[in-house]
Specification:
CATH topology of the largest domain: Rossmann fold
CATH superfamily of the largest domain: Hypothetical protein af1403, domain 2
Strand content: 15-25%
Structural class: alpha/beta
CATH architecture of the largest domain: 3-Layer(aba) Sandwich
Strand order of the largest sheet: 1-2-3-5-4
Number of strands: 13
Distance between the termini: 175 Å
Shape: elongated
Number of helices: 12
CATH class of the largest domain: Alpha Beta
Order of helices and strands: HEEEHEEHEHEHEHEHEHHHHHEEE
Number of domains: 4
Length: 443
Amino acid sequence: MTTFQPQTAPGEAPPPDSVRPRDSTPQAPTSVSRLNETIRDFVANWGSVWVEGEITTWNLRGGAVFGRLKDLSTDATLAFRVWSSTRERLADDLKVGDHVIACVKADYFVKGGDFSFGVSSMRHVGLGDQLERLERLRAQLRAEGLFDSARKKPIPFLPHVIGLITGQRSDAEKDVHRNAQLRWPQVRFRTAYAAVQGDRCVPETIGALKALDADPEVDVIVIARGGGDPQSLLGFSDERLLRAVAAASTPVVSAIGHENDHPLLDDVADLRASTPTDAAKRVVPDVAEQRALVSQLRSRLTSRLAQRVTHDIAQLEQLRSRPALRDPESLLTNRAHEVHLLSARGRDRVDRALEAGVRRTAELRAGLQALSPASTLARGYAIAHLGDGVIVRDAEQAPAGMGLLVTVGRGSFAARSEGRIAEGGEPGEAQDRDATGAAFEPN
């Protein structure tokens, strides 16, 4: 590494145009141009130095490149410029986030008092430390599911109050307010200011987020910042802020930088807007569009109702034209006649069924009477019983002298057997016999 040494040794007189601190007094101050020329001459004696760092800014203006190089272990940076003649010799893929080594030479501009380094050579060393760290964090958060669309909360159609986190008196705040009020004049904001870059960015943004998330009137929170170099947007890729956004119960909209800017907050937030202006358009509906939609829906509803009423009137007229509704009493008259015929037919069938039943009952009664022993006895037959109630069926059962009980058609009487009569007895002594037992010939 080259060591910076002035050309004049200690004790030697400086060049005639140079100025030393003891050469100026309150009574005889030196001029600004002479001081700047002294600094320029001093800086011009430095040689070229090879430095290592990370590109944080790379702006192309008129063929030249103006950028900044950041130390890999501290926040120290230096400004550099690459003239078009030098740029033609450099790699075409140099960009923000690249880890590079560069050969630089200090230069001090007398007119503006600006200090810068001119680059004569620059080449890659590897992926910039910050970019590599962000990629590792991106992979970790994706593995944890913080980028999943399933966990993202829906944005309300018309928020009552919009929470806005942005820099104080920033263009982003003006853009969000102006575009939101153009779309919906009655929109209300609750703004929490926070630093949008630097060391205070993350803690102040987290504090504002927690305050708005705890407000029950706030329906959606917009974190907005204008464009800037990637170095100034690093706070919106901080892990602490990303986890606070993921844990918020209120939907969060990320509106950081321009279309090409893409901090990790865009992936964790519930909605990513390309710019603060786009955030206002995505969060607040257009009142003109909604009025046109309401008018269209009202027209469709009126048309459908008219069609329905017309259809129902036609159906009603069709029903009224039916005979049953034109003369309702005709239904009752026809039904009454049918009921009369059915009731007469029913009575006739019942009468015939009763007559048939009476005849059948008489026939059954006559048959039962014909088969009844009482009918046989009524014709003059008798039944002889022994003393124990056994019917006499054989003459041998009633020897001479045995008492008998004789049952006739009207009552019973006692008798005594004279014994068996021979089959060849005297004429007139023949006897009738019943199938039930001994019988006596009627008188």
